[in-house]
Design a protein that fits this description.
Radius of gyration: 31 Å
Number of domains: 1
Strand content: 35-45%
CATH topology: Rossmann fold
Distance between the termini: 57 Å
Length: about 200
């Protein structure tokens, strides 16, 4: 009797549906920075994990579109998995990222972050470009710092003494000397570029 009661209750019970909201993770490959140094006075050395590290910190500033057409913090909907040359092999073994990062990122349907650093005697510039999985540009960030240029006046003054008399003669002014203090490559530029990049990321 008890079994029949349970069977009837089961057959006529309301259908209960459990809805599980799925959140897709976003993957980003951080390629090696490309550095072009045209200055003999400025070193082009940055931390080997600098871009990778700051990307892991600042991806949380990105936004994603919601069902209302506005943007929410990305952390409300997904997480970002960040890879570099030493970790990508654990997720994707089917492509050589050091040989062609764009092709591999497109093939495996994830984002790509490239960093370009240009140095000359007058300016140091850091540019970061984030590509969509289809290799169109999603966001760009630029940080630059100009070196200091000083001009040293060249004008000779000649002093002579004859018969107890002091003569002072100012010679014609020469072309001033140009003294350049180059802009150095600092880690703070990498941090600022990464922060600015992810603040501008809006994923639809």
């Amino acid at each position: 009797m008890l079994f029949l009661y349970w069977l009837v209750s089961f057959l006529y019970a309301e259908n209960t549906t459990i809805i599980v909201e799925e959140h897709a993770n976003i993957e980003v490959y951080v390629s090696n920075p490309i550095i072009k140094n045209y200055s003999a006075e400025t070193e082009d050395i940055i931390g080997s994990k600098s871009v990778y590290g700051y990307t892991n910190i600042y991806w949380k500033d990105a936004k994603v579109i919601n069902e209302r057409g506005t943007f929410d913090p990305i952390t409300m909907h997904s997480i970002v998995k960040v890879y570099d040359k030493s970790t990508i092999k654990y997720a994707y073994r089917n492509c050589n990222y050091l040989l062609n990062a764009k092709e591999c990122s497109n093939q495996n349907n994830h984002y790509l972050l490239e960093t370009y650093i240009t140095i000359d005697d007058h300016e140091t510039a850091v540019q970061m470009i984030l590509y969509n999985p289809d290799m169109t540009v999603l966001a760009v960030s630029n940080v630059s710092d100009r070196g200091e240029i000083n001009y040293i006046k060249q004008q000779e003054t000649r002093i002579s003494m004859t018969s107890g008399r002091i003569d002072m003669r100012i010679m014609p002014e020469q072309k001033p000397l140009k003294w350049i203090i180059p802009a150095h490559l600092l880690d703070i530029y990498i941090r600022q570029a990464a922060h600015g990049l992810w603040l501008g990321v809006k994923i639809k």
